[in-house]
Write a structure and sequence with these properties.
This protein is of the alpha+beta class. Helices cover about 20% and strands about 35% of the residues.
Length: about 90
């Protein structure tokens, strides 16, 4: 896997991973899910959306470092920011 750019929200604890080309969204999502699974002590394959975590994919413009909001499709030419917030407390 490639190296990833991202960070963590100091307020809510959600983390994000950037995919500036939007060509690796699946890989980025798997990396974020793996980080979340580690946080709560679960196997990646046991993670349940809505129960263990909440997520969102937003458009991202690498040149301006801004998001234009929720992604409308993968052919728009924008990069992606994948946000994931763990809902369960660590085991």
């Amino acid at each position: 896997m490639e190296s990833i750019s991202g960070g963590t929200c100091a307020v809510c604890g959600a983390f994000y991973i950037a995919d500036p080309t939007s060509k690796n969204v699946g890989e980025v999502m798997m990396q974020a899910l793996a980080l979340a699974a580690d946080q709560i002590g679960k196997d990646l394959s046991d993670m349940v959306a809505g129960e263990d975590y909440e997520d969102a994919v937003l458009n991202y413009d690498l040149r301006t470092h801004r998001s234009t909001g929720i992604s409308r499709g993968f052919m728009d030419g924008d990069g992606r920011l994948y946000f994931l917030k763990v809902k369960r407390k660590p085991a």
